[in-house]
Amino acid sequence: MELIQRNPQLAAYLAADDVVDHRHPLVRETADRLASGTTDAYSYAKAAYEFVRDEIPHSQDAGDPRVTWRASDVLAERTGICCAKSHALAALLRAEAIPAALCYQRLADDDGSHPFVHGLVAVRLPGRGAWARIDARGNKPGVDARFSLDEERLAWKVRPEFNEVDYPVLYDVPHAAVMKALKAAPDRPSLWPIYPTEL
Fold first, then answer.
1. Where are the domains of the chain?
2. What SS3 state is found at 11?
3. Whole-angstrom distance, CA of residue 45 vs CA of residue 53
4. Range 4-140+155-194: architecture per CATH
5. Separation between Cα atoms, residue 133 and residue 100, nearest integer Å
């Protein structure tokens, strides 16, 4: 699949805003701590990915009712759904001047019911001409996502027979439909009925 930058300017994928708030002190502190144990952009990106994947539980897996959406809040509260965790990973990458995009899949339950939008990050490391999608939602039985730039190791591969979709667009800011739901929901049980089923 060919990935398509929504914004042609690579600098847009380094920007800070109220969601991917990589100038926030907690994001900066976390990025500095992760960077101190790395030697280059690749090792930093892998460390940031594994930190978000492994140290911030997916709220559904953990049974945590809180809804987070701002990167700094995801880091502070140590919880979030896939899209929120993607915001945190994008912020940590951008904090170290690594272009990071937000991208999405349309997935469904095992039987094809209950479609939902799943959030990912695409990273573009120095010296590489291509974006690579990575999925930091968190592993669990049946899910084994890995940091890989050459061969995708996402949590799930789409199943076209269930109308699942890999969306090719790389967003410099979170998709408006996702943000509308995350900001409106007072807790996770309230989130799912209003969460987008497609983009």
1. 4-140+155-194
2. helix
3. 12
4. Roll (3.10)
5. 10
